[in-house]
Structures are given as C-alpha cells and as structure tokens.
Amino acid sequence: MYQLTIKPRFLETDALGHINHTVLPVWLEDGREPIFLLFMPELNVKNWNLILAKLEISYKKQIYFGTPVELRTYLKKIGNASMTVRQEIWQNKEICAVGEVTNIHFDHQAQKAMPIPKHIRQELEKHLYKPA
Description:
There is one protein chain. The chain has helices spanning 24-31, 33-39, 118-125, and strands spanning 2-6, 50-59, 69-78, 82-91, 94-107, 112-113. 17% of the residues lie in helices and 39% in strands. The longest helix is centred in the first third of the chain and has 8 residues, at 24-31. The protein starts with a strand and ends in a 7-residue tail after the last helix. It has a single domain (2-125), classed as Roll (Thiol Ester Dehydrase, Chain A). The chain has 132 residues and is an alpha+beta fold. Strand 5 and strand 6 form a beta hairpin. It contains 3 helices and 6 strands. It is globular, with a radius of gyration of 16 Å.
C-alpha cells in the first residue's frame, strides 16, 4: 500500500461546507504518483506511457476542511498491459470515499497497449489489495 497524507485546503470546500466532489479525482491522481514513478522515473510528460481508461469514485461520507486526510493506494488487479488501482480516502479513522482507476501501459507511437515490464509488475505486486 502506498500512503499519502493530504491537508484539505479551504479553497477545496463548497457551499455546503465539505470538500467538493470535483477535488477527489485530483487527490487520487496525486496518490498514484508512486506508480507513475515506476513507469516513468523522471515523470517526463514527453515519455508518458500510461493512459487513464476508467475512473470511478464512490462517495461514502463527507470530507471536511481542517482535518488531515489519509489516502491509501493499492493495486487491485494487474493484467498484461493494464492495472486496476483501488484508492481509499480516510478522515477521522473513517472511510469517506473509494476510487478505482484503470490505467493502460500504452505506446503512443504505435497507438496500442503494451505489456507491463516484469520488473515493474514485481514492484506493483508488493502493493496488491488485501481486503480486511
């Protein structure tokens, strides 16, 4: 599991007083940075080889300004050329949202998926999701 602590900012709140639902995809992307680094150690956008195929978020509880949030990132499934990432957002020891993202390892020049290299797969496997 990869972990990241986020300090919600006041500007991320909405008129209802909680963190706006549009903020969570940004947080989730931030939590996937360790995975991006495995594929692109220099995070050079000219050599970016992951594309987002699907993003789904289930909102379970409101998230508020003023209290840190813990973002947990796991690998739910690792395919030949794709992976499903499960992410959980926790605040005050309660799960507030669950995100699932499917990324594809992609060759932009050939315009097709390419296999995940063995050394990256081995590192990803260390972070497989194990439900409680």
